[in-house]
Amino acid sequence: MSTQIPVILKSQHVCAYCHARKQRCDKALPSCSRCASKMLSCHYGSVAGKSLAKEPGTASVSRLIERRGDCCSPDLSQIGTKELLLAACGIDDDGVPSMTGLIYDFLDASRISLLDLADEYFATVHRWLPIINGSSFYRRIHSSRWPNDDQFALLVYSIFLVTRLPCASGRHSMRTQLYRILSRVFVMQASENATLELLQTGLLIAVYSCGHGMAREAFMILSTCAAVVRLLEAEKSLDNCGNYQDAELEACWGALALLDSINAVCCIQSITPLALPPEQPSTSVPPNCDVDGPFESFRAISSIAQRIRPALYYLHDAKNAKEAHDTYNTVCVDLQFLVCDLLNASNSKARIYCESNAFAVSTRFVVQSSHASVRALDFISHDLPVIKSALELRSTLRMVIDMARAATATLREQDGQPARVSFVGLCAVFRAAVLAVRLDGGAMGEEDLDALKEGLRMFGIRWGIAGVYERHLDE
Questions:
Q1: Burial class (CB in 10 A: 0-12, 13-18, 19+), 350
Q2: One GO term of the cellular component aspect (predicted)?
């Protein structure tokens, strides 16, 4: 019985795409594996070593990037922006590769390995925002041929975005062309096809927006994420055999509530509403929210984000001079009980509840300082409720100063590299600490003030919002 041996046809020459990049080509016919993975038309020259016919879109990937110096990561060029928009809109323009091909071309031109990019993401952002199944993601990038999946490519693009550091010199804005176009493409895709990967993309764009002080942009992205997650929930109710994992969707719910809350707490000058409505049902993250390992701290703080939502709506109404649904006393009492519960829980599980406690205390301080009579720290008033509230504010202020000191110590332990430390807890603490200095400059001693400035400088290595706080502190 004879066994058929598969015949693999190969070209005698390398293809135009691999030749232009001086990369190894497997010469497979009708398309090499590199061009097939990027969904590009593969063209072979007729004479080895001679001038090869250059396929449109493969001649030079350098057209896609704009280098802004050694102090910044590469940005998307104007040509790359145009081509990516055309591809996202589905416009069939000669010479423009697919959106998947363009994104991978950009990464190639930036000399970014997909494996290195994934390793960096899962060692940093994923540690405190576990919304992506790591095992599944690595299987996708290790596959020999990536599918023509634009939404997976967008997810890779958003991972590249959120892992970039701010400009070391401070000369360039974090509102890069890459950030702007990725935000637009995300909204466009959300109106056509809501998927779990697209939701994860939006959440990572929101992390970038929050982390670099773009509260209004973060609100717009989070509002779109809220619409996507509702569509996914609706599809899930109609088809229990959806193409996404329940655990990942629940984790995205928790991340959405967390980012929505931190965006409202940490903005300083702008009045940013919440993307999720006040009647949003509880979305506490289940124990199996992450398949890669225990993320108890994330589960805890995402649940805290749910509990402080009434306080955030009160804060927003107070800023807009609207009649709040809950009174100041009701909100403060609820936050006081929450802080007490977290302090008690921290006695046995400090590692898990430390960040949640910092988030709750910072929120309580922001709410307390928003009340005019309390903010005046009026201890000579004959109004006993006012004196009581002022004393409570002074007590919370001391807790904020202690937490700011601890936050700076934590960053020192990281040797000035805060990439692995959660953005959420540090952002909330530094926001409250800056507010404390503005409220009562004498409350923080010179040593603590110097430590706060040092902490903000280290925090600013990773997140641009630290620069916003530093400028507000110096005003």
A1: exposed
A2: nucleus
Tokens 């540090």 sit on residue: 426
Beta bridge partner(s), residue 10? 28
Q: Model confidence over 25-41: pLDDT tens digits?
A: 888 887 888 777 766 66
Q: Is 18:34 a contact under the CB 8 Å cutoff? A: yes
Does the pTM surpass 0.85? The reply is: no
Q: What residue type is assigned to position 7 of the chain?
A: V
Domain ranges of the chain: 296-475
Our CA angle for 269, 273, 274, nearest 5°, is 130
CA–CA distance, 308 with 203 (Å, rounded to integer): 20
Q: What is the pLDDT of residues 218-257, one digit of tens each?
A: 999 999 999 999 888 887 765 554 444 677 888 899 999 9
Take residue 398 and report the two structure tokens written for it: 């001391």
Distance of alpha carbon 319 from the chain centroid: 26
Q: What is the CA radius of gyration of the chain?
A: 25
- Chain segment 105-123, per-residue pLDDT in tens: 888 888 888 888 999 999 9
Inter-residue contact 219 to 231 (CB < 8 Å): no
Helix (H) or strand (E) run with residue 75 in it:
strand 75-76
Rounded Cα–Cα distance for residues 281 and 257 (Å): 11
Choice between 79 and 322, residue whose per-residue pLDDT is larger: 79
Residues in Cβ contact with 465 at an 8 Å cutoff, skipping those fewer than 6 apart:
210, 211, 212, 213, 266, 427
Q: Are 40 and 58 within 8 A, CB to CB? A: yes
Please check whether residue 125 is in contact with residue 211, taking contact to mean a CB–CB distance below 8 angstroms. no
